[in-house]
Every structure is written in C-alpha cells, then in structure tokens.
C-alpha cells in the first residue's frame, strides 16, 4: 500500500521549536523512522511538510491520482482554521488519522476545536513523536486486514 504523511506549518522547525511542548525529535527523524517501518512492512511511505495551505491541498488532490491508500496528517495550526483542507480530504475520500505532538486539549481553548477530528478515522494527540509511529501501526493493521 501507499501511505502519505503530511505535516503542516512550522513543523519543519521541530527539534528547536518550543521543545518543552513539541519535543526534541526533528521532522527528519520522524520521517526516517516512519519510512523505515513502512518499508520493513512492505509498504511505500511518502511525506511532505509545507507552511502553505495550498501546497497541502494540492498534495491531497494528487494523492488520489497516485492511489494513496492512507494519510497520516498533522495539520498543525491549520487544524483550527482550515475549512479548505477539510474539504480537500472529503473530496478525495482517502482515510486519514489526525496526529498532534502536543495534547491540544490541555492548551489554549482555540486549540480545542479541530476541523478534522469528526471526519478522521482516529485522532492521536499528546504522545509526542510516538504518536506518528502509533498512527502508522494502526494504519498498517487496517490496510493489512483481509
Ligand atoms: C500541533 C498543535 C497545533 O495546535 C499547533 O498549531 C501546531 C502543532 C501539534 O502537533 O501539537 O503547530 O498540531
């Protein structure tokens, strides 16, 4: 199967960005770990980080043409703002898991609402970089289910 991992704005700064909130793991370490795990299991994993909403939208559109089977998505700040990204995911109807490094529910009230949670297969938050790995394990289990 083909999986796509999408990272929203400012996640390119992981490792140095508010490490008390987001941890010390870099985005490259996260992507490499996911790529390794997916390829060990015989799957293909693609990834993109963008600070631009339209880039993420266009990547989601392209995912349908590439027959991407599953998306793991940390929309970052767009979680709380983007009807356009929500609509893109509805348009391609590719199942996805929403991931956040931090526990958004114990942070500012504006982070408590997500435009994605009610259309996601599942949501993981507050577990740091492990959240991506756990999302991948769950996705692989679903994709490998007969
Ligand atoms: C985040 C949480 C968002 O509220 C924030 O805007 C981010 C990262 C997380 O991974 O914890 O940029 O999605």
Produce the secondary structure layout:
Blueprint: E1 2-7, H1 19-22, H2 27-40, E2 44-49, H3 53-65, E3 70-74, H4 83-92, E4 96-100, E5 122-125, H5 130-144
Parallel strand pairs: 1-2, 1-3, 3-4, 4-5
The structure holds 1,3,4-trihydroxy-5-OXO-cyclohexanecarboxylic acid.
Strand content: 15-25%
Q: Figure out the total of helices.
A: 5
The SSE order reads EHHEHEHEEH
Label the CATH architecture: 3-Layer(aba) Sandwich
User: Mean pLDDT score, rounded?
Assistant: 97
- State the distance separating the first and last CA atoms: 13 Å
Structural class of the secondary structure composition? alpha/beta
Q: Tell me the strand order in the biggest sheet.
A: 2-1-3-4-5
Give the class-level CATH name.
Answer: Alpha Beta
Could you name the CATH topology? Answer: Rossmann fold
Query: What is the 3D form?
Result: globular
* Number of distinct beta strands: 5
Overall number of structural domains: 1
The CATH superfamily is identified as Dehydroquinase, class II
The gyration radius over C-alpha positions equals 14 Å
**Bound chemical compounds:** 1,3,4-trihydroxy-5-OXO-cyclohexanecarboxylic acid
Report on the biggest sheet. Answer: 5 strands, parallel
Low-pLDDT segments: none
Fraction in helix: 25-40%
Descriptive notes:
The protein is of the alpha/beta class. It has one domain: Dehydroquinase, class II (Rossmann fold). It has 5 helices and 5 strands, in the order βααβαβαββα. It has helices at 19-22, 27-40, 53-65, 83-92, 130-144; strands spanning 2-7, 44-49, 70-74, 96-100, 122-125. A 5-stranded parallel beta sheet has the order 2-1-3-4-5, with helices on both faces. Strand 3, helix 4 and strand 4 (96-100) form a beta-alpha-beta unit. Helix 2 (27-40) packs parallel to helix 5 and helix 3 (53-65) runs parallel beside helix 4 (83-92). The mean pLDDT is 97. The active site is at residues 22, 100. Its EC number is 4.2.1.10.
């Amino acid at each position: 199967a083909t999986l796509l991992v999408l990272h929203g704005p400012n996640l390119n700064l992981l490792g140095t960005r508010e490490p008390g909130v987001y941890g010390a793991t870099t985005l490259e370490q996260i992507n490499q770990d996911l790529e390794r795990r997916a390829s060990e299991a015989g799957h293909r994993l693609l990834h993109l980080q963008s600070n631009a909403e339209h880039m993420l939208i266009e990547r989601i559109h392209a995912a349908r043409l590439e027959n991407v089977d599953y998306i793991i998505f940390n929309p970052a700040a767009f979680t709380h703002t983007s009807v356009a990204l929500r609509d893109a995911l509805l348009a391609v109807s590719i199942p996805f898991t929403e991931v956040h490094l931090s526990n958004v529910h114990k942070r500012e009230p504006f982070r408590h609402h997500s435009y994605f949670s009610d259309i996601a297969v599942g949501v993981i938050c507050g577990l740091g970089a492990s959240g991506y790995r756990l999302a991948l394990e769950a996705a692989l289990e679903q994709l490998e289910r007969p």
